[in-house]
Amino acid sequence: MTIASTSLNAHERLKGSLGLCSWRAGWRSLLLRAYDEPEEVNDLVTAPTSDQLIVLVTNGSCHIEGRYAGRWHQSRYGLGDIGMTAPGEEVQLRWHKGSGLQTLQLHLSSSTLADVAHLDPTRVGNTSLPNQLVRPDPVVAGVMLGLRRAAQTGASELHAETAVTFLASHLLQFHAGRHPPAHAAVDDRRLLIVDSWLRESLDKQVTLDQLAAAAGLSKFHLLRAFKRRYGETPGQRLSRYRLEEGRRLLSSTRQTITVIAFACGYENATHFATAFRRMFGLSPTEYRRSVR
Question: What does pTM read for this prediction?
Fold first, then answer.
């Protein structure tokens, strides 16, 4: 999973103000950026890259036009709408009547799409994704918003890698005309190995490649089987285990919150506190006071 250098430099052509960037969080399996967009843009030509670009409107609206395949397309761009630019494509854009427009822009590497396509030989069909000026997709929107929250709270690379593999599978199935594979059972013992690995890796970085190798499964099959068995992805389960361990340490030790954050795999106390409050409804300090 390698993001193209042209994707890393794509912001140089954009008109918006860059906010969040997942690269700063240390993620390398995808590139997610947030922008505050101007109200009007008369001429913007996107940088061609080998990665698939997905743009989600997270706030506001505008009237947008895009030129590709030799002609202009136009639409109203609003909250939850998604646009896509296929790998290698250069798209001319312009918009007006913008109001509070904010976007999330996700670069998904072509190698990720190819890996997911090749992981399951029962899948057939075209793997190319189209240029689409506007197409709502609540699944894609949900994944991108979840990735934004994860980047803000310092989630691990495993979380990002898990999400992007699922997203690639979804795009291939619903946006490239591919067909879902036949159901295949997975021995629960393999999933128990993965679960045990997660429990023992609270203070370590864990990759999807490591988990898949331990289970003897492809990444795609591991994600599908794990979610079916446990109702959550490996990344979500690891986050929960870390926060539950943090809660235990807060109630049973006098360690500082910073020390506990590091012990639970978080880069700093702020990220730990944000994730802790989201799960338990209290800050670490508030929780510690409530149990003493």
Answer: 0.71
